[in-house]
Amino acid sequence: MRCFLAVVTLLIASPCWSYDRTFIEGANNNLGEALQFLREYDNEASSMCTRVTEAQWLYATNITEQNRKRMVDALSLQAKLDRVSWQKVIQFSWSSLPDPMARRQLQMLALKGRAALPQEKQNELAKMVAEMKEIFNRARVCPFATSASSQCDLSLEPELTRIMAHSRSYEEQLHAWKTWRDATGPKLRSRFSRYVELANEAARLNGFRDAGEQERAAYGVDDFQSQISEVWSSLAPLYRQLHAYVRSRLRKHYAIPHRLGPTAPIPAQLLGNMWGQNWKNILDLVLPYPGKRRADVTSEMLRQGFTPLRMIQISEEFFTSLGLKPMPVDFWHKSLLERPTDRHVACKASAWDFCNRRDYRIKQCTEVAMDDLQTTHHEMTHIEYYLHYADLPYVFRDGANPAFHEAVADAVSLSVTTPKHMHRIGLLNNITDDYETDINFLLEMALDKVAYLPFAFIVDQWRWQVFSEGTRNMNTAWWELRSYHQGLLPPVARSEDDFDPGSKYHIISDQPYIRYFISLVLQFQIHQALCTAAGHVGTLHTCDIYRSREAGRVLSDIMSVGASRPWTEVLRVATKGSASGLDARPMLEYFKPLSLWLRVQNRDERMIGWVTTDQDTALYEQWSRGSASKSISHLLSWAAPIITIASSYTIIR
Ligand SMILES: *[C@@H]1O[C@H](CO)[C@@H](O)[C@H](O)[C@H]1NC(C)=O
Ligand SMILES: *[C@@H]1O[C@H](CO)[C@@H](O)[C@H](O)[C@H]1NC(C)=O
Ligand SMILES: [Zn+2]
């Protein structure tokens, strides 16, 4: 294992990965000075964080131009502090400091961010991203049925999202799908290319090969790429069963044999979501046993006179029943739990840490409904996380890796979602635990989580490929991944004048995405660990950890260490040694009853999986580049070492 240092070239053992890399490091190895710097940084960064978070809260709960300006000002002060701090960090020869906690903090500060870029390029990068967001947010499209009076003012939220979710007209969905991409992609493309150059330059200055490698370094695992590819290959058979079942139902509903054959990829606009990433909006088309719909406890909540405050109190009682912390005083005074009538607010539910060990809040426009009750539990898990790591230094007040916060919150939701839990909190009289109700429940969960796996996987596969190989043919590369992993096709021809990845906000707003894939898998690992601790017997999807002090201890162990330990170690502790990396098996176990059911349903299908014909690939490949399978195996030589040829993805019966 070797590390080349920019200033001093050394051979050292522990704090680096096993590939060669050039860190920016200085010569100062005075531990006392390093600790002094960290103390000062901790104070400054914490109060800056408080200031920025207050400004962000003010804006999110009262959207005015004045509040936006204040927020932007605070953010630019924070960027200034980040830059100055980075300059100080790299004066230290941090990788050779004897104190492991100091070393870890300095390493985290040194290797993330874009502070290595010269000032004017940093500004340009920030400007590119801001312009892309602006284009995205301002994009408007015309309605499907135009009349003389109709205005072209539909935006992604809420109109287009609603059409994708609820329209059952092939042409109307196609219209929404295509016009959204027309309104965004072409304007974003050149700015995105410049963004790629600048992000790569920042990463290279910081000792990485490219910006993708920098993003992956946040996980601190040697063979990260092959680990995640392996996990996806283990889950792909389950996805293909779901895909085959849904395709067969869609074929019945739309009766379009020429557009959706029994072995074809699915047209991307038919799945109830703008990116085909989450399929729960088409539950009505695919529900296995319509006579056994999941009991919706909303009416019972209304009957019992629930209020948003009561829902928050019930969530708090969930956590105290596990032996975890009650919400602090400021939480009750300062949270926003209902949509105010006197101002415009951003209603998306979120949990806030004001970085002063006192002030924590939830913002949620809570409606008295079952989904919202699950959301209050989810958001409060984030608050519990904040409370548990509050005493750590600022740098460590975060999840164990970029996916952990979300994975823990979703793991808690897996308990709260069960009919058993609804029964225990008095919202459901009868738990009907018959087979058909179970399958309905699991299928609904699968539309949410299994369907999302390949999309969550490919977004950064694509982005990392662009970072490492450049922006040529990037729309084709996107569709190669979409068709290969998701089994989806564009409903109309695409070209390199289009920029379909730009239809997704995370891509143009510079937000890493692989965390969503990791979190999908990790939440089932955590759920299983909690259920084992709680002494749960029976199938994993029926487990509810409510009132289990033992499960509470596992959660507390995970949350208290924040980001101060490697996540692999946190996982090892949580699972009592049974896992120290990403593992597909708990997710497979959770969905096992469904997986067996799908196999039976699909037994007459001609194919589990899909064949991409030349005609299909002609939709997105403008250039004749040899056979489709050749280009795919070329593509996958970097993406998925496990799966090397296209045919391994299809099982022809
Ligand atoms: C919203 O912010 C504006 C400042 O932009 C302020 O004047 C107004 O009082 C605020 N409204 C509320 C309800 O806080
Ligand atoms: C419980 O089940 C019984 C019998 O199936 C039914 O009559 C009753 O209405 C159910 N109660 C609730 C609250 O769903
Ligand atoms: Zn969350």
TrEMBL record:
Cofactors named for this entry: Zn(2+)
Signal peptide start-end: 1-18
UniProt cross-references to Pfam families, sorted A to Z: Peptidase_M2 (PF01401)
Alphabetically ordered keywords of this record: Carboxypeptidase, Disulfide bond, Glycoprotein, Hydrolase, Metal-binding, Metalloprotease, Protease, Signal, Zinc
Top-level taxon of origin: Eukaryota
Residue ranges of coiled coil: none
Disulfide-bonded cysteines: C347-C365
EC number per UniProt: 3.4.-.-
Entry-linked PANTHER family: ANGIOTENSIN-CONVERTING ENZYME
Family affiliation: Belongs to the peptidase M2 family.
Name recorded for this polypeptide: Angiotensin-converting enzyme
Organismal lineage: Eukaryota, Metazoa, Ecdysozoa, Arthropoda, Hexapoda
